[in-house]
């Protein structure tokens, strides 16, 4: 038998009569899509992609809360030095007690202070030279000793050390009996431009670490030998930390512990 030859240009058919399909789609076809790994598809011939995307609002980051160090720096630089510079644009003297010196040194540098019109930093406990043509900023711990030294600077109107603009800032809450002593000092009151509690009665060590810098023996918390509970100074300092962070915390403590119960309820 002679085999029949097929004409050129014809397509062979399968045994079942079906014809083979073209290997590639027509270039003129529109709306076709090609599969990609991961289940996404890409549109061809100018059509937009149908892949899903997150809404612009859901992917936005929330602003981070400032660290404890940044809060203290803002409290000192803006609420103290810049506010005082706005009220008195001239150069001023900064007077601090030992506690305030530790607090300021832990948070800001001398450059940050001098950039806010502070020309000299002096210790409250030491003898100081008069600067009658300059204003003064006092940053003090709210203690009886520091307030007494403050009032001594204005007890004699012929020996007042500084000019007519005086700013006084306390690291923590002022006891009412000590505040009444300040009100009775007429020479200070007539020069006073600001009297405020800045609530930074602690030492900030790192971005989110602090110490209250107390020298109370641990045994005093349990012996109860003093007239007032030993945890009162600790509670006062912890309150200033919460005020600096603008937090009103929940306190969990063991009810069977007298020290913990007293500290939590002060």
List the SSEs and their pairings.
Blueprint: E1 33-35, E2 41-43, H1 68-87, E3 92-96, H2 98-107, H3 110-114, E4 118-123, E5 135-140, H4 144-152, E6 166-170, H5 176-183, H6 186-189, E7 192-197, E8 203-206, E9 209-211, H7 220-223, H8 232-245, H9 258-265
Structure characterization notes:
The protein is α/β, with parallel strands linked by helices. It has helices at residues 68-87, 98-107, 110-114, 144-152, 176-183, 186-189, 220-223, 232-245, 258-265, and strands at residues 33-35, 41-43, 92-96, 118-123, 135-140, 166-170, 192-197, 203-206, 209-211. The strands form 3 sheets. Strands 4-3-5-6-7 form a 5-stranded parallel sheet, sandwiched between helices. The radius of gyration is 38 Å and the shape is globular. It starts with 32 loop residues before the first strand and ends with a helix. Mean pLDDT is 79; it is low at 1-58.
In short:
The chain is an alpha/beta fold and 266 residues long. Helices cover 31% and strands 15% of the residues. The chain has 9 helices and 9 strands.
Using DSSP, what is the number of strands?
A: 9
The helix/strand class is: alpha/beta
Low-confidence stretches: 1-58
H-E string: EEHEHHEEHEHHEEEHHH
Query: Rg from C-alpha positions?
Result: 38 Å
Q: Largest sheet, order of strands side by side? A: 4-3-5-6-7
**Share in helix:** 25-40%
Tally the helices: what do you get? 9
Mean pLDDT metric: 79
What is the strand content?
15-25%
**Largest sheet report:** 5 strands, parallel
Shape descriptor: globular
Ends apart, CA distance between termini: 116 Å
């Amino acid at each position: 038998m002679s085999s029949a030859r097929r004409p050129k240009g014809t397509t062979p058919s399968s045994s079942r009569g079906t014809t083979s399909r073209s290997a590639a789609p027509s270039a003129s076809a529109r709306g076709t899509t090609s599969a990609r790994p991961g289940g996404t598809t890409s549109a061809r011939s100018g059509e937009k992609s149908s892949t899903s995307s997150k809404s612009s609002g859901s992917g936005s980051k929330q602003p981070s809360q400032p660290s404890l160090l940044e809060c203290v720096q803002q409290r000192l630089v803006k609420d103290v030095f810049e506010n005082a510079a706005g009220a008195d644009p001239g150069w001023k003297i900064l007077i601090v007690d030992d506690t305030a010196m530790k607090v300021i040194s832990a948070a800001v540098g001398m450059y940050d202070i001098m950039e806010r019109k502070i020309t000299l930093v002096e210790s409250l406990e030491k003898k100081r030279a008069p600067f009658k043509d300059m204003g003064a900023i006092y940053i003090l711990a709210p203690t009886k000793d520091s307030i007494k030294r403050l009032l001594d600077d204005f007890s004699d109107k012929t020996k007042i050390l500084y000019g007519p603009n005086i700013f006084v800032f306390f690291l923590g809450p002022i006891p009412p009996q000590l505040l009444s002593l300040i009100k009775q000092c007429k020479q200070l009151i007539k020069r006073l431009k600001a009297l405020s509690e800045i609530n930074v009665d602690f030492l900030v060590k790192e971005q989110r670490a602090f110490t209250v810098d107390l020298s109370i023996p641990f045994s005093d918390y349990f012996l109860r030998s003093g007239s007032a509970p030993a945890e009162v100074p600790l509670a006062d300092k912890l309150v200033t930390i919460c005020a600096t962070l603008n937090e009103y915390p929940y306190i969990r403590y063991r009810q069977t512990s007298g020290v913990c119960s007293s500290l939590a309820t002060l």
